[in-house]
Each structure stands twice: as C-alpha cells, then as structure tokens.
Amino acid sequence: MISRINLGIILIMIPAVSSIVQAECPLDHLIIGCNRDGIEGTDDDRQLFVDSRQKYRDSGETEYANWFYPLHKSIFPSYSYRVGEPGLDAFQSTNPSAAYTYDPNRALAGEPEADYNIFIECVDMSEGIRAVHKDYPQFTIDTVGQSFSHSAIYHQRDDSHMHMSYQAVDGENLHWITFCLYDSLDDGDKYEPSEPFTIVFNTEPLTGDLVVDGIVDIADLMELSRYWLATDAGRKNDYYERADANRDGLVNLGDFALMASNWHVIP
Ligand SMILES: [Ca+2]
Ligand SMILES: [Ca+2]
C-alpha cells in the first residue's frame, strides 16, 4: 500500500521536477525569441533575437564582473581550454512556472521544424576556437559559415534547452564566436534574421571593439552608429552588444569617447 502511494506521488511529481530542473540549470543561456520589444505591431514582431540576460553571469567572482568567459585547462590534449556555457534555450508560451523562459510575447509561434526552422550560423570566429555539441547529434563548428538547426534538436528532444562546449588552443588570448539566427523555412511567414551576437572568451575585448576582432576601427564605429542614442541598454540585450560601454543604459557621447580612446590600438 505504501509503495503504491509513493508511486502515485512520484508520477505526479515528474512533470514538475522536470520543468524545475530545466529552469534551474546553473549554466548561462542565450534565449531565442522574436519581437524583442514585446509589443505587437512594431517593426521587430517577426525579427529573431537572443535574450542575453544570463550571458557572462558566471564569468567572474561576482555576477557580470567580466565581459568574457574564462576558458579552463582540461585533460584533453587538443583544444585544451574549455567552457560549457553559454547554452541555448527558447522562449515558450505553455509553461508559466518555467521561470523567465515563459514569455508568450516573445515565443516563436507553432512547432519547431514544422512552423519554423531556426538555424544558428557562425558568421565570425577567431583562429583556434571551436564549438562542439557533445550530445546527439554531435557536430563541431570550427569554420565561418557553418551552422546547425536549433529547431531540429528542439524537435528531436521535445526540449529547447541545449549546451555546447567552447574549446580553444589557449587560455589567454582573445577568442570569439559570432553567431546569427535565421529561419530556413520558406513558407511566406518566415522570421527575419537576428542581429549578430558574439560570445567572448579569455579576456575582455578593448572597449569599443563592438565587432569583436581585437581592433577598434571603422567597423566598430558603424556598429556604434546602429545603436546611437538607443535607450534601455541592459543585460537582456548585452548593453546593445557592448555599445553601451559604460553600462549607464544609454548609447551616447560617453560611449563614443571610450571607443575613441582605443581607436586603432592593437593590444
Ligand atoms: Ca572591431
Ligand atoms: Ca552609455
């Protein structure tokens, strides 16, 4: 009798525990969604984006201390310096108890692979870094132009939560991977590609190095101009991909001055 009662409790508990585990994964995640401003009827309704509120959360002694992920020496002889975050997840509209991933205003409509097929494409990376998906289906991103379907993995597992291992040949130099999201379905109701977003490793880029590549030049100035006079910079948008260099919420002359101070500096 006791065991039957216990079994009943366990069966009831399984869905709740599962959703809690997903919500409480201790690693950082980038959350895939659309309609960044959360308001219907504006230009970004069909545009993809990643929410960055957890990005770099675990990168230093205190939350958000650094603008990079330190890579740690591993036992593996090749690409020895590694970190297992940030992962990826998606906004959803069905489980209100799943912490902040529940956001119906920003969730993609329909089912992954059937109604949308979100690819994550590497559009830039430093030499000597790669991203490895160790779980099934295994793959490695080590060349610009490579991509994988987040929606396929989501569909396969019935779970949007995934992680990759970021691996580099050293633990000191600036490394980066820049991704972009796009919807490969061509059904007339396609989502628009996201802005590029960059994950940085080992050391903080120069202030103003917005298109991260180790130097502050005209490409960075053009990037700053895209966000010029923007408000509401914060963790959700990674301070507009670091355009708000002094993290005061605004992209303005103060940030331009910081960029100018590093103009054409080669570290
Ligand atoms: Ca740059
Ligand atoms: Ca600012």
Question: What's the arrangement of secondary structure elements?
Answer:
Blueprint (H helix, E strand, L loop, with lengths): L1 H22 L5 E6 L13 E4 L20 E2 L7 E3 L3 E4 L27 E8 L3 E5 L5 E3 L5 E3 H8 L7 E4 L6 E9 L13 E5 L16 H9 L11 H5 L10 H8 L7
The structure holds calcium ion (2 copies).
Structure description:
The protein has 5 helices and 12 strands. The chain has 267 residues and is α+β, with helices and mostly antiparallel strands. It folds into 2 domains: 27-204, no CATH class; 206-267, Immunoglobulin-like, CATH 2.60.40. The model is unreliable at 1-23 (pLDDT under 50). 19% of the residues lie in helices and 21% in strands. A hairpin with a 5-residue loop joins strand 7 (129-133) and strand 8 (139-141). It is globular. The site of one calcium ion has 8 residues, from helix 3.
Give a summary of the structure in a few sentences.
The protein is α+β, with helices and mostly antiparallel strands and 267 residues long.
Task: Please name the defining characteristics of this protein.
single chain, 267 residues, alpha+beta, Immunoglobulin-like, five-stranded antiparallel sheet, binds calcium ion
Rg over CA atoms, rounded to whole Å, is 20 Å
Q: Total helix count?
A: 5
Question: Major sheet, described briefly?
Answer: 5 strands, antiparallel
- How many beta strands in the DSSP annotation? 12
Mean pLDDT: 91
How would you sum up the global shape? globular
Low-confidence residue ranges = 1-23
The domain tally reads: 2
Strand content: 15-25%
Which strand order does the major sheet show?
3-4-10-7-8
> Could you tell me how far the N terminus lies from the C terminus, measured between alpha carbons in angstroms?
71 Å
Written as H for each helix and E for each strand, in order along the chain, the element string is HEEEEEEEEEHEEEHHH
Percent helix among the residues? 10-25%
Summing up helix and strand content along with how strands pair, one would put the structural category as alpha+beta
Bound molecules: calcium ion
